[in-house]
UniProtKB/TrEMBL annotation:
Keywords: Membrane, Transmembrane, Transmembrane helix. This is DUF423 domain-containing protein. The lineage of its organism: Bacteria, Pseudomonadati, Bacteroidota, Flavobacteriia, Flavobacteriales. It holds the Pfam family DUF423. InterPro entries: DUF423. PANTHER family: TRANSMEMBRANE PROTEIN 256. It is found in: Membrane. It comes from the Bacteria. Belongs to the UPF0382 family. Coiled coil: none annotated. The chain crosses the membrane at residues 42-61, 73-94, 100-124. It is a multi-pass membrane protein.
Amino acid sequence: MEKKIVGTGAFLGFLGIVLGAFGAHALKKMLTPELLAAFETGVRYQMYNAVFLLVLGRLDLITDRARNIIFNLIVWGVVLFSGSLYTLALLSAADISLRFVGILTPFGGTLLIVGWFWLFVAVFRKKS
């Protein structure tokens, strides 16, 4: 499980760097400042949670069950939160409107919040 979590964190970090560079260079001329800011928010939160997964994979303070639950919450949170922001920005640049994608953003954000809170609880619940 450790290899899967750290590997996923590394991949999300790699992808965050690529998307950040893409946003800063290619999308800067195509998006409004608001859409570019939304795209950058997606990149920023993806990177925060990529680092979180790197730490989570090596953390001995919680049970394997808690680690697995947190991993899934964070991965799905990033997919829904950051992914929906990327999709909204890119579709808007292509002049395509899919408003329902925006409803995914708060669900993803909620999963990220729950994942971090689950870590908080798990650290204090594990018996030494």
